[in-house]
Amino acid sequence: MFGLIGRMRASPGKRDELVALLLDGTEAMPGCLSYVVARDPVDADTIWITEVWTDEQSHKASLDLPRVQATIAKARPIIAGFDSQTRTEPVGGVGL
Amino acid sequence: MFGLIGRMRASPGKRDELVALLLDGTEAMPGCLSYVVARDPVDADTIWITEVWTDEQSHKASLDLPRVQATIAKARPIIAGFDSQTRTEPVGGVGL
Question: Domain ABM: where (chains A, B) (predicted)?
Answer without folding.
Answer: 2-90
